[in-house]
Structures are given as C-alpha cells and as structure tokens.
Amino acid sequence: MATKNKVLRAPLEQQYSEQLAALKQNDTDVAPPSWKLSPRKVLEFIVGGKPQTLKKGRKTIEVEIPTKFFGDHRLVERAIVTLASERALLLIGDPGTGKSWLSENLAAAISGNSTLTIQGTAGTTEEHIKYTWNIAKVIAEGYSSSNRIPSPSMTAMQQGGLLRFEEITRCVPDVQDSLVSILSEKSIAVPELPDDNMVWATPGFNVIATANSRDQGVNELSAALKRRFNYIHIPMTKDSATEQAIIRQRITELSSQYQLQVEIEPNIIELLSTVFRELRQGRTTEGVKITEVNSTLSTAESISVLLDAAIHAQYLGGGKVRIDDIAANLVGAVVKEDEADRNTLREYLNLVAKRRAADSALWDKFYAATRAAL
Prior knowledge:
Layout: H1 12-15, H2 17-25, H3 39-47, E1 49-56, E2 59-65, H4 73-83, E3 88-93, H5 99-111, E4 117-119, H6 126-129, E5 131-133, H7 135-141, E6 148-150, H8 152-159, E7 162-166, H9 173-176, H10 178-184, E8 187-189, E9 198-200, E10 206-212, H11 223-226, E11 229-233, H12 240-257, H13 266-281, H14 299-315, H15 323-334, H16 340-357, H17 361-373
Parallel strand pairs: 3-10, 3-11, 4-7, 7-10
Antiparallel strand pairs: 1-2, 5-6, 8-9
C-alpha cells in the first residue's frame, strides 16, 4: 500500500519550500505586484546563490541555494524582466534543453504555483485555454459564475499568477489564437453571462510558453501572437563541465525521488557526457569531424540513460552502475526512428571509441559493451 500523502513528484514550490521561504525572509528589494520574491531573489533561486538563514520558530537554520538552471545567466535575467512586463515569454530550443525546467522554476519562485499548466497537443481546444461548464448544474440551474469551470489561464488571471503553456506550437492555429485576447486585453469574454461577461486579469498575471525549435513548422504562431511574446532561445549545453554538473545534480535528485542507493563512478558520467556531446555536434574533443546522429541527444536524454542504468543496478544488478548498463541504454537513446543512426553509432565506435580503448580501460569496456548491444 502506498504511503499516505506521498506523491511521485511534488511541485517545485513544495520541493524547494525551505529555499523559497529563506529567500523571502531575506528579501529587501521591491517585488512587482503579486510576486512572491523580488526579481533579484528569483534570479538567485534559479542560478544559485549564497546560503540564506531561515527562522523556524525559535530555531534559525542555514539553507543552501543550489544552481537549478546551468545555462547563461543573462537568459534567465531576460526571462525575469519579460515576466515583469506586459509581454509574455516564449522559451524556444531543442528538446531536452531545459525549457520546461526553467519555466517551472520561474513560476514556483514568482507566483508560488507552478501547477497552472496547459499541455499543448493536437487535441487541445479553446475550452482548455478559456473555460468550460458543469453541464449537469447548467441544466439544473442555468448559467452562472458558480457553474463555470475555469481553465488554468482563467485561474492564473484571477490570482495574478503565471500560466505555463507547454508545447504551444503543437496546438492548431485557431486554438493558439484564443490567447491573443488574453495577452492583449488581459481578459476572457464569457458571452453566456450577460451581466458578468468579462473576467479580467489581476496584476502579476503573465504567460510562459515553450516550443521545440524542431517543431516550429508544426503549427507556427500567427503574426499577431508572435508580437505578444518575447522570444528567448535556450541553446544546447556545449560545455563538458557544465553538462556533467547538470547530470550529477539531476541524477542525485532523481535517485532520492526513486529511493535509489547505487554507486555511480564520476568517470562514467564524464564518458556518457562526452559520447552524447560528440555525436550531437559531429566533432570529437580532439577536433576530428564525425557523422552527426539524427536523434536529439540532449542532456535530458543522457540523464534518462543514466537513470535507467541506476534503476537496473538497484533492482537487477549489484548496486553499482556498470558500463554494460550504460551501453545498452545508450543504444536505445541513439537509435530511435532512423536506422541510419545505428550505422553512425557503429562508425563512432570504430573511429573514436576503439582508438581511445587502447589507452583507457573504461573506453575499452564501453567499446566492447556497445558493440555487443548493437
């Protein structure tokens, strides 16, 4: 039986409640209307900062504020400034670059609620963005505000919070354009209620949307909607040390979430990061040009490969992540829809991994295990 009140993944405002409370207690700057923290403290929460003291009753504790987004700090600053303005924010980048993670952290720090979210799909309708009705009550009592079911957009408007719109370009254009009036007039019309036919946004309301750069051609935003967004492109992590730091931090958090107690050697994380980065960029660390894979080998993908290997080590292995487990999961991450990527990976093994195997026992094991998995 599951433990009462346990959830697989709590919202970030709950996971990081002590950090947010400590930053709040030590916040001396002025915050925009309805913001829980000032822009400076929001930035500190996301990019990391010095430890903060937190008074809890008669006790005072010191709370660490670790880095949560490892990208360019100036991108985060621009995002925060945008959300304090009239314009909405659109985060664009390849899959796995941390767009949703940044969006969630911004919402948790700014409005204290990261759960007001619309997931864009081909099945998303205008009702998901605006409102719908409790049909049974409408039949019995007629239309009234109490019988209206607000969307996350309407709730964010009424609370002065942030709406997170994930994968906005996956929605059809007509549905996307239902956001135009929300972003321009800051209101939603309710024609069914003649005496109460408008819902107006309160100060603090804004929208954070995300879109994959590879999907921009699915349902590109209209010109009217583009004008209402400030675009910020989130690049793929290219620095090896930064990518390894992201992997280590996230795998530590996920290991705690999944209650994993396994040993992961640091050089395995270094090897995994190197392989993904080289296959992604089409160039080795030494500057040798190689064939790029068609799959999106993001940092998020490498984290998934390592997590799967850790789960295997916990339940089916000996409690230690082995290079064999990494190799088996890596093949699945690289070779997806396009079988040509199998040949690309095989070429990488023969041209790069095999050469390194002569000087490194770890690369030798990786070369042998990956060839066997192919």
